[in-house]
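This section describes the prediction task in plain terms. A model, or a person checking by hand, is given the sequence of a single protein chain and must write out its three-dimensional structure as a string of tokens. No templates, partner chains or ligands are provided. The sample shown here is typical of the held-out split.
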Amino acid sequence: MSDEWHPGMRRELLAGPCEAVLSSRSLGWTVSGIGAAVVVLALLLVDPSLWVWGLGPSAVSVAGIAVGGMLDSAAVSQQRREAQAGYTTIATDQTDLEYVDPRTSRVVRRAGEVLTTHELDVRLRRVRAAR
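The expected answer:
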């Protein structure tokens, strides 16, 4: 078997959501919570007597930011587990780990390879096209 990279290279991923998915969900929940907080602030700036209308968005804000924080913690834990397994699902400058596409479980960058952002994008497109 060749040690050269090819778009069909697969890697077994750990069970459960990967770091990339958890990070994405964390961002979504946190941004939603911040958006709800902005709604509350806007209501209070318009007329402080509208505070009662801000109770619902306040609850959404607290819940969104709390869930986002929990998902972020889960992403950090998953990042450690993935690193121990020798791969990552987030494209970083950390070249000592394989970069694996979380959608296809295919290797985009082998450990030790130094690639430009453009090269990573080209490989990611090739990996996703190689179904």
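For orientation: The mean pLDDT is 93.
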